[in-house]
């Protein structure tokens, strides 16, 4: 199976460079995520994704801890180790003094039906 190569901002198509630069603010590592770098091959796809992120950032009403718990529950349900790691790192970097408590994270990860999420909040 052929992988879609990842672009950097420097080598991305001109139409996607500013969008990729904007995606850096959502990155937990300060670098482009692979999915952002790969979406740069299709400017319409990247623009649609960025628009959804903008709308969520501007108009979302859920607190960060609730958003993190929901993303964590979805990652658990999907059995996505990548998403679990990414969300965990993002939350710890976002709140270095607090983060998502380890006991709550373990509870949520071990509960595949998601009822542990309420306790994580």
Brief characterization of the structure:
This protein is mainly alpha-helical and 121 residues long.
The largest sheet, given as strand count, sense and whether it forms a barrel, is:
none
Tally of helical segments? 7
Low-confidence stretches: 114-121
Can you give the mean pLDDT?
Answer: 79
What is the number of domains? 2
Residue share in β-strands = under 5%
How would you sum up this structure, described in words?
With 121 residues, this protein is mainly α. The chain folds into two domains: 14-59, no CATH class; 64-120, no CATH class. 62% of the residues lie in helices and 0% in strands. It is built from seven helices and no strands. The protein has helices at 14-23, 34-39, 43-59, 64-78, 81-94, 102-110, 117-120. The protein is globular and about 40 Å long. It starts with 13 loop residues before the first helix and ends with a helix. The model is unreliable at 114-121 (pLDDT under 50).
List the helices and strands and how they pair.
Blueprint: H1 14-23, H2 34-39, H3 43-59, H4 64-78, H5 81-94, H6 102-110, H7 117-120
Helix pairs in contact: 1-3, 4-5, 4-6
What structural keywords apply?
disordered C terminus, 2 domains, about 120 residues
